[in-house]
Design a protein that fits this description.
single chain; Muramoyl-pentapeptide Carboxypeptidase, domain 2; 2 domains; globular
Length: 271
């Protein structure tokens, strides 16, 4: 019997055994119809983590997979989470191929760094002008947010919405979703985000979520309310998110293809 045929047959049998072990009443969950998978919505990787004035990160929140950025940047040592860093490499390469040279101006910032920046800003201005977030409210603390500019704008003392006219900003607005990023603070979403328009601030959410948000013209607050509203309705109709994730994980772990010493694929079941 061919390997793919054998795999399919054993897979069907294993699925039957798994499902038959679950009481009938426990299986009667409504169909999951949200466009994104439960695995993405579960936010297991933390890519959908929200940080704003209403949802504050704790003072000890720090990603455990920060890496030093290898892309073009204004100073050394800047960090982001690994997935975001790899996505930036891919995006910078694509932008350069289209004649857009990008630079990272700011990336991960710790709670303490944000606290110092906020205090300094308020002291110098005499009031909170909304351009520097309170500690715990900064998207930068997630390790997934970054400020990206062209060379001309890296030399300016202050950033403002006029950057949106630059070809690099327009390229990012049209293409960043393809690499898992969104414009975090959109021009017509200031009421939802509580932040003024920042065409330079990108946020990594993963390719699937980024495409969904781009196509539905959503900021992260919109998207969070969207999937949470769907989940609440789904569970009110008899769904159990924890049980659904458990079932999906069980089915994904039933069949595993391994490679033996000769480089041939072998079947591993219930591993």
């Amino acid at each position: 019997m061919r390997m793919d045929t054998l795999k399919r047959a054993i897979g069907l049998f294993a699925c039957f055994m798994l499902l038959s072990a679950v009481p009938f009443g426990a299986m009667a969950m409504p169909e999951w119809t949200f466009p994104l998978s439960p695995e993405i919505i579960s936010n297991r990787e933390g890519y959908l983590t929200l940080a704003n004035k209403e949802v504050l990160l704790s003072g000890d929140y720090e990603p455990d997979d920060l890496v030093t950025l290898t892309v073009r940047k204004v100073y050394t040592g800047m960090q982001m989470r690994k997935a975001a860093s790899l996505a930036l490499e891919e995006m910078f390469e694509a932008a350069e191929a289209d004649g857009c040279i990008l630079y990272v101006k700011s990336a991960y910032r710790s709670y303490q760094t944000q606290k110092t920046m906020y205090s300094n800003r308020v002291s110098s201005m005499g009031y909170d002008d909304g351009l520097v977030q309170k500690p715990g409210a900064s998207d930068h603390q997630t390790g997934l947010g970054c400020d990206i500019l062209n060379l001309e704008w890296t030399r300016k003392e202050k950033m403002n919405k006029d950057f949106a006219a630059a070809k690099e900003a327009q390229w990012m607005a049209e293409n960043c979703w393809r690499f898992g990023f969104v414009i975090r603070y959109m021009e017509d979403k200031e009421e939802e985000t509580g932040i003024k328009y920042e065409p330079w601030h990108l946020r990594y959410v993963g390719k699937e979520a980024a495409q969904y948000m781009y196509e539905h013209h959503q900021c992260l607050e919109d998207f969070t309310a969207d999937w949470q509203g769907y989940l609440a309705d789904w569970e009110s109709r008899g769904g159990s998110f924890e049980r659904l994730l458990l079932q999906l994980n069980q089915l994904n772990d039933v069949i595993v293809l391994e490679t033996n010493d000769e480089g041939e694929e072998e079947l591993s079941i219930f591993y």
